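Hi all, posting the design record for the shared folder.

TITLE: backbone redesign
STEP: 1 of 1
STRUCTURE INPUT:
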C-alpha cells in the first residue's frame, strides 16, 4: 500500500512497573501498525495478549514507554489541549453499551455529550439527529426522550456509535463492538460499521478475539500474541492461508473450520516473564510434534526472538518455521 497511514504506531512499547519488587509487565512490546484512510483493521488475539492496551495507547489514554503514536503524519501531542482535539478526530466505541451510557441520561443527552464537551458551535439538535439517523435509529425524535433501559442491546450499541459519530471523527476504535450482543444483532452492527466506512470514508480499528468477525468486516488483520503482532496482512490472505501456528490455532476452533481444533497448552505466558526465543514456542504444536526440528529451526525457536514486523501493508509472519517452509 502506498497511502500514508492516518493512525500509526512506530516501535510502540507500553511497560507497566511491577508491584512490590515484581518484574515489569511488557503489555505492548514493539508494535508497528498503521491504519490507512477508509481502512478497517482487525486486531485479534486471546484475552490478555495486549490488544486493549495497544488500543488505549493509540487513543492517547496510555502514554508509551518508548516508540511513538502518529496521526495524520504528526506525532501525538500529549498535552491536555492537544489530546482533547485529537479525541474529536478519533473516537472510542466500547464493548458494553450498558456500561458506556449513563442510565440517567436520555438518548439525546448521551449523543449530545461529546458536542457539549467540545463546545460545538453549530445546531446541536441537527447534529444529534444526523448522528442517530446514520446509526440507524429512526425516526430520531422517537428516540430523543428514551433512557438506556428502554432500549434493546442493539439499540444501545447504536446510541454509543451515534455518540462517536456526532463529532464527525476520521477514525473509530471499536473494542469488541458486538461481543455483548445477541447473534441476531451482531450482523446488523457489523453491516452498520461497513456502511459508515463506505459513506463517510471512516477508518476503524476493531479489537476482537473473534476471527470470524474479522473475516466479515476487516480489510487487514493483525494477530497479536503476548504484546507483539505475530502475523499481519490482507484479511483473506491471512485467514485462508495462515502461516503462524498461533493464527492456525485460533482459526481451527471456528465453527466453519474444516481442520481439527488445536487446543493450545496452558494460558498465555505472564507478560512480566516473556519466554526466550519465540514468545509462542512453549505452546507451539509444531515444536512439540517435531516439525520445527525437521525444518532445522527448533533451536532458533527456543533462543532467537523473531524480528518485529514492519508496517509494509503486505503479508508478514514472525515465525522461524514459517519463514523456511514457504
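Okay, here is what came back for every position:
SEQUENCE:
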Amino acid at each position: 500500500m502506498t497511502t500514508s497511514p492516518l493512525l500509526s504506531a512506530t516501535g510502540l512499547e507500553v511497560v507497566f512497573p511491577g508491584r512490590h519488587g515484581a518484574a515489569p509487565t511488557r503489555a505492548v512490546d514493539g508494535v508497528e501498525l498503521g491504519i490507512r484512510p477508509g481502512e478497517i483493521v482487525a486486531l485479534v488475539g486471546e484475552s490478555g495478549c495486549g490488544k486493549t492496551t495497544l488500543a488505549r495507547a493509540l487513543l492517547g489514554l496510555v502514554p508509551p514507554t518508548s516508540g511513538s503514536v502518529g496521526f495524520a503524519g504528526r506525532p501525538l501531542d500529549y498535552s491536555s489541549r492537544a489530546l482533547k482535539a485529537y479525541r474529536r478526530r478519533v473516537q472510542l466505541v466500547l464493548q458494553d453499551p450498558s456500561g458506556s451510557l449513563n442510565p440517567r441520561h436520555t438518548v439525546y443527552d448521551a449523543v449530545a455529550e461529546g458536542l457539549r464537551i467540545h463546545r460545538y458551535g453549530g445546531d446541536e439538535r441537527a447534529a444529534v439527529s444526523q448522528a442517530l439517523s446514520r446509526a440507524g435509529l429512526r425516526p430520531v425524535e422517537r428516540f430523543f426522550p428514551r433512557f438506556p433501559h428502554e432500549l434493546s442491546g442493539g439499540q444501545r450499541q447504536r446510541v454509543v456509535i451515534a455518540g462517536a459519530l456526532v463529532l464527525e471523527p476520521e477514525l473509530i476504535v471499536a473494542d469488541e463492538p458486538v461481543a455483548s450482543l445477541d447473534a441476531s444483532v451482531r450482523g446488523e452492527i457489523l453491516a452498520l460499521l461497513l456502511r459508515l466506512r463506505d459513506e463517510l470514508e471512516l477508518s476503524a480499528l476493531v479489537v476482537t478475539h473473534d476471527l470470524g468477525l474479522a473475516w466479515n468486516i476487516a480489510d487487514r488483520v493483525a494477530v497479536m500474541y503476548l504484546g507483539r503482532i505475530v502475523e499481519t496482512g490482507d484479511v483473506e490472505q491471512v485467514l485462508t492461508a495462515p502461516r503462524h501456528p498461533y493464527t492456525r490455532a485460533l482459526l481451527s476452533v471456528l465453527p466453519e473450520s474444516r481442520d481439527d481444533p488445536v487446543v493450545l497448552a496452558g494460558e498465555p505466558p505472564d507478560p512480566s516473564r516473556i519466554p526466550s526465543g519465540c514468545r509462542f514456542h512453549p505452546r507451539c504444536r509444531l515444536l512439540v510434534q517435531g516439525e520445527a526440528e525437521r525444518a532445522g529451526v527448533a533451536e532458533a525457536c527456543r533462543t532467537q526472538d523473531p524480528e518485529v514486523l514492519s508496517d509494509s501493508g503486505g503479508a508478514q509472519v514472525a515465525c522461524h518455521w514459517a519463514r523456511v517452509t514457504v
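COMMENT: The chain has a mean pLDDT of 92.
Let me know if anyone wants the other runs.
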